[in-house]
Amino acid sequence: MVAEQTNQLTGIAIAGAKAKAYWELLKFRLSFLVAFSCAFGFTLASAHVNWFTLTMVFIGGFLLSGSSVIVNQIIEKDIDKLMTRTMSRPLPTERVSINEAIMVSALCFISGVGLLFMYTNPLTVALSVVSMLLYSFVYTPLKRVGPIAVFVGAIPGALPPLLGWTAATGAISHEALIIFGIQFIWQFPHFWAIAWVADEDYKKAGFKLLPSSGEKDLNTAIQIMIYTMCLIPLGMLPATFGITGVNSAIVATICGVLFFAQTFSLMKSGDRKAALKIMFGSFLYLPIVQIAYLLDKV
User: pTM surpassing 0.85?
Assistant: First the structure.
């Protein structure tokens, strides 16, 4: 009896550990942010929000993001072992096997595409598949080639709000391109701040993501500053084109100026702490601005 109870507890512990490993494999926070951006685009484009369809878009976006990041981890399994920030992931630690990861990724992909196919339209499905392919099979290997990877990665990184818009409207309009453009430009200071902070780890893996000479120098800091500065006028475009009102334009401008101001510290000191502030600033900028747009939707 005692042996049976012990075996049951052991089985529960093993199942719990496996479920936790699968959860980590999905990169919940990243996939949630992708799903949120999809929901943002859908809601912004909808005159009257269909909450059921919105939920399906959110879940579909989450599953497709999960599938993409799992493929990324499968391809980079051996590389992840070299970096401190990634060596404890499920695949390098062998808490999840390659076959298990492939199975979970395939299940997420089929489920995500299936939901979008049933509840949105062919354009959204096609764009979601393109996004997944670009991120998993183009951006991922390019990370060891050069900073062109950041440009390529910024495309699938900026597609979620556009996917949400097309899910609601069935078309790529100038409004859709505006919200795509804001998130596209945002990707550059976001990516490069992370690459600056994780530079030592990235060099171990052979990643070449920083612009210019690939070094943490003034040229890189200037490029981060330029792209961040571009967010200030871009943030006003939704109000200019009547997607949102003036209040969100004010919020976006304030956030853009504060984000931009952080880049001067990096130019002056060039230290990791300054890059870390920009990285966290990028994490705050996008959701705050997107929520402001939603609250101020015309």
Answer: yes
